Amino acid sequence: MSSAGDEFGTWDASGLNRFDEAVGAPPTAAPYDPLRLCVFATIALITCVFGPIALAVFAGIAIAGYAKARRAGLLRSKCKLGDTRNVLAYLIVLEVLALVAVPFWVMLWAGVWS
Question: Which residue ranges traverse the bilayer (predicted)?
């Protein structure tokens, strides 16, 4: 029997690590898409224009979504508040504050335009 060094010494590895046209090139990483930044900017614009009305609408949509998710079994959220009960409480507070602020916001704009 020959030694291990002889076996590997005569082995031809030149066919390894070659590009195979049938397989194709590995996929390249897609460039970073800052879609979240565009979404945040759009939400900020809507909030600037519509004030507490926009906050009430967004909070209402979020409350409906989290309530549905909680009924479906979601107990922990990726939100920093963690527990969905905390998230729902936070959103309800935002909704109430927004609804209280709407009349004052309307009076402010009525005073500006009159």
Answer: 39-66, 87-112
